[in-house]
């Protein structure tokens, strides 16, 4: 009797496994049936099996190297997705036919993770377009001019911190953490109107949570991998874009600032809190919405601005200084441009308009963003059956990823793409996408709303650093990247040697 039961059990297991494998095999033949080149998937995980051992950046870089075609099929688990490698097709997805690709491919965790689901990066249409319209005035030239004054003050503190810690006391440099302190101080004022200095006092009400947000552990890397590539699993597992401690801290800080303003009657028209309070008044929500939804919409934008402002700017600054350390001739050219501007204008500090006139500084930053784009892909999901080319039709609900690395490293657009050459961007403006060959901020209606803010934050700090220090290399030229980070980041934070001028 026992033997018969065991045989039936084994037969059932084999039968179920066979059906599962047939199901997988059927789905894994999706791109082959359409005659579309594809990356051979592994069992169960599709083309995601290597993630957490390699970074998202490495995944898309490997796809670029293996497939020189305009597009390539991949599998997210057993779900087919299409990766776009050409600027012409990227333009169709991101701009020309935006109506078919309005949303990002991430899970709608409204209940379990409202701050993750309702921020401007992830929120779905039509709410997205209304929110973007309301938030756009945050980044006008007038507002950025005021914020640049604070960026200059924080950059001076950054110079003092470098002198004290890394020259006088000879502490090892972790550029990513150092620059995260600088960006944290700036975002504290921009979002909450708080004038604090973790660079000066090593404490601020925002620094603890900022460090928590940008510390990429295995678990945080896994959460973001699932959110971006397997949202159905993320929803089942209730994974979060922002961790519970980060969410609670943002709530506490945000409502503390609001309560203080209500008591004192003071407001600051220049910060994000004031703009979000206006957003709550003006946003037209569904009739059955409750107050909590409006509150979560405000909190979600504050949390996103903190994460985006701190993480992307700090990694860009780290990679830029790394390249300048290895290219002293270009470093000297940049120093000459900055010092000449100060001399010609009779100033000790360059303001917003002055910094915009430093074309070689802008070129250095843009070439860094080309070679080291913080996010290697631009994700969208097709909302209706769409004909991409005469040979390719994208079905509804198919994820589509524009491979930013494939475009940035295309030799047709950028000869010798592995070389860091700021001269590629000698004549440029902040709004130039070079005919869709330069996409670190995305493009189209959903391009990064904080682009000008981020560029100015990086400009200000690098100008101060290069003016006060020579930068020399410490590590090997090749920089290992953090496999757990959703944003391209040096594994060890990045190190250089600062020499006072």
How does this structure look, described?
With 501 residues, this protein is an alpha+beta fold. It contains 20 helices and eight strands. The protein has helices at 2-28, 30-33, 56-66, 87-96, 114-118, 127-135, 141-168, 175-192, 198-201, 207-214, 218-229, 231-237, 244-264, 272-282, 291-326, 328-345, 352-356, 359-371, 404-408, 451-468, and strands at residues 71-76, 79-84, 377-381, 386-387, 393-394, 399-403, 469-473, 496-500. Strands 1-2-6-3 form a four-stranded mixed beta sheet, with helices on both faces. β4 and β5 form a beta hairpin. It is globular and about 80 Å long.
Produce the secondary structure layout.
Elements: H1 2-28, H2 30-33, H3 56-66, E1 71-76, E2 79-84, H4 87-96, H5 114-118, H6 127-135, H7 141-168, H8 175-192, H9 198-201, H10 207-214, H11 218-229, H12 231-237, H13 244-264, H14 272-282, H15 291-326, H16 328-345, H17 352-356, H18 359-371, E3 377-381, E4 386-387, E5 393-394, E6 399-403, H19 404-408, H20 451-468, E7 469-473, E8 496-500
Parallel strand pairs: 2-6
Antiparallel strand pairs: 1-2, 3-6, 4-5, 7-8
Helix pairs in contact: 7-8, 7-20, 8-15, 10-13, 11-12, 14-15, 15-18, 15-20
